[in-house]
């Protein structure tokens, strides 16, 4: 399929528009969402359809326009930050990213070494191959995602208009927060037989707005065009966009773990990346970090941390522990 024109997938909204992200639930911009592996691993056409649905939710609000005149929208929906994988290549990729942050848990037949897979402070993540989040199912991309903000029932009732559907069928576990493309196998066994066996589903992009026909059902999506939303003075909750100095609820999070450059060499988890990105964003706001906020925490981040520690009268070691976090949180809130 042709590449999408931009991170807004041709929907005509601003990259400063926001959606929910992660199980701790943050409001992040599309520009920030675009850097997340959880989102980038999803098939681009799936991303496009899901975004169209999120911004068409009746509780979406508009808080003005950007410099290009594009509406800045804020959706009450979004994507969870868990990842799933199956197949040899995908499993290898999963372990390369995540194996070093295993935590002891209850014995589970779905996990190796008798431990349950957990990400600190987040929901349990399924062991590779044990769910319908088949990472290598469609052209190397994820086949399903976890929705946030689905509980009011609107998404389940309207998602088919956008060429997606939920796993709400009993054969798929009744999970109303999972979505995939219309027309996929209707049971887990059929799904795994089709896609774990190496088949790939070729997707034809659907028009998001106007009249579309999916599975013989005609849907008129024009009434759900996302620019037709009410004005509101601010987003649903504080925005998280570390690159541009928006820190959301992070200054209030007391559970941030100690991080440093040496730890970055062994921990490539989403949790570490988010925490490091927050630190980089605050250091950048303070004028000490001059590079892109990427969550990798290399030598530049370490140098900026040392400069920050020196300016605050803290122990200068480049590690961000409890005292440095407290100072960073104060700087973020100032």
- Strand proportion, as a percent range, falls in 5-15%
Q: Which blocks of ≥5 consecutive residues have pLDDT under 50?
A: 1-5, 83-88, 97-132
Q: How big is the Rg? A: 21 Å
User: What is the H/E string?
Assistant: EEHHHEEHEHEEHEEEEHHHH
Content-based structural category = alpha+beta
Number of strands: 11
The amount of helix comes to: 25-40%
- Summed up, the domain count is 2
Beginning-to-end CA distance, first to last residue: 46 Å
Q: What is the makeup of the main sheet?
A: 9 strands, mixed
- Total helical elements: 10
Query: Overall pLDDT, averaged?
Result: 74
Overall shape: it is elongated
Describe this structure in words.
It is a single chain. With 334 residues, the protein is an alpha+beta fold. The chain folds into 2 domains: 18-81 and 135-224, no CATH class; 248-333, PGBD-like superfamily/PGBD (Muramoyl-pentapeptide Carboxypeptidase, domain 1, Orthogonal Bundle), CATH 1.10.101. The chain contains 10 helices and 11 strands. Strands 1, 2, 3, 4, 5, 6, 7, 10 and 11 form a 9-stranded mixed beta sheet that branches. The protein has a two-stranded antiparallel sheet with strand order 8-9. Helix 8 (270-285) packs across helix 9 (299-311) and helix 8 (270-285) crosses helix 10 (322-333).
Report a brief summary of the structure.
This protein has 334 residues and is of the alpha+beta class.
Salient structural properties:
nine-stranded mixed sheet, alpha+beta, 2 domains, 334 residues
What layout of secondary structure does this protein have?
Layout: E1 18-21, E2 26-29, H1 30-33, H2 37-40, H3 44-56, E3 61-65, E4 71-79, H4 88-98, E5 145-148, H5 154-158, E6 164-167, E7 175-181, H6 188-195, E8 211-214, E9 217-220, E10 239-241, E11 246-247, H7 261-264, H8 270-285, H9 299-311, H10 322-333
